[in-house]
Amino acid sequence: MTDDATSMEPLVPKLSLKDVTLSYEGNGRRQTVLEDLSFEVRTGEFVSLIGSSGCGKSTTLSLISGLNMPDSGAVSIDGLPVCGPGKDRSVVFQHYALFPWMKARRNVEFGIRQVSSATKRDITAKANYYLARVGLEGKESLYPHQLSGGMQQRVSIARALAMETEILLMDEPFGAVDAKTRTVLQDLLLELLEEQHRKRTVVFVTHDIDEAILLSDRILFINNRHVAKEVPVPFAHPKSRRDIVFAPVYRELRKEVFDLFYDDEGEYYGAGI
């Protein structure tokens, strides 16, 4: 079973979306992307959002980040409404989002400066520390084009972690790297979050069922513009890939999540595996 939630906030959730509806104007008509979407995330919890392409997963992250505002409903952090981007949130995108004219260290330092007034020496030391933690010691002075895709994503992860925000938003961060690099980055993320005693609250978008099971405390399946199903992930921390894959309940859990991509008539939505 999962850890006892005594370390998590029992009353006010870290993050809450309540009856959120959002629509866009396109092709001369109004299209509803999310409708009456509601869920909560507790402090230190890792929640994955899955669903077919276009179901609103990335849009949900944009609402939490404050880059979009809902038409109706409420998005709140620690009980306070989200009115725009904040220093309590950092984002890792699928396609690196590095500044090509900045070296790896500068990219990480830039993120830190958005949330910290520390001295230049301290910011540089923190950037070097997190780059080393993601396996990029000695690569600090390289530009993004001099790094492989996996290395560029490590810089993005280092930047987000170095900002030390309370909430980490990750939008398919491993979707653009090869399978081996993806495995390495998944394990690295697990290790770094465990080292920080699960103080970060993470909302993670993925199409990969195995990735969601490995990383998450809960999986939320989004369909028909709202959360259609919540799936608890019953593995204790610290997590071990080997222990999870060989656990008897793993296959049952994987099938349960996979089956969510079929509607009542057997239509396949696409599970990204």
Radius of gyration: 19 Å
Distance from first to last alpha carbon: 26 Å
Broad shape: globular
The share of residues in extended strands comes to 15-25%
Instruction: Provide the structure class.
Output: alpha/beta
Characterise this structure.
Helices cover 33% and strands 24% of the residues. The chain is an alpha/beta fold and 273 residues long.
Descriptors:
273 residues; alpha/beta
Give the SSE layout:
Layout (H helix, E strand, L loop, with lengths): L14 E12 L2 E13 L4 E5 L6 H9 L6 E6 L2 E2 L7 E4 L11 H12 L4 H14 L15 H14 L4 E5 L7 H17 L5 E5 L3 H7 L2 E6 L2 E7 L8 H5 L2 H12 L14
Parallel strand pairs: 3-8, 3-9, 6-7, 7-8
Antiparallel strand pairs: 1-2, 1-4, 4-5, 9-10
Summed up, what is this model?
The chain is α/β, with parallel strands linked by helices and 273 residues long.
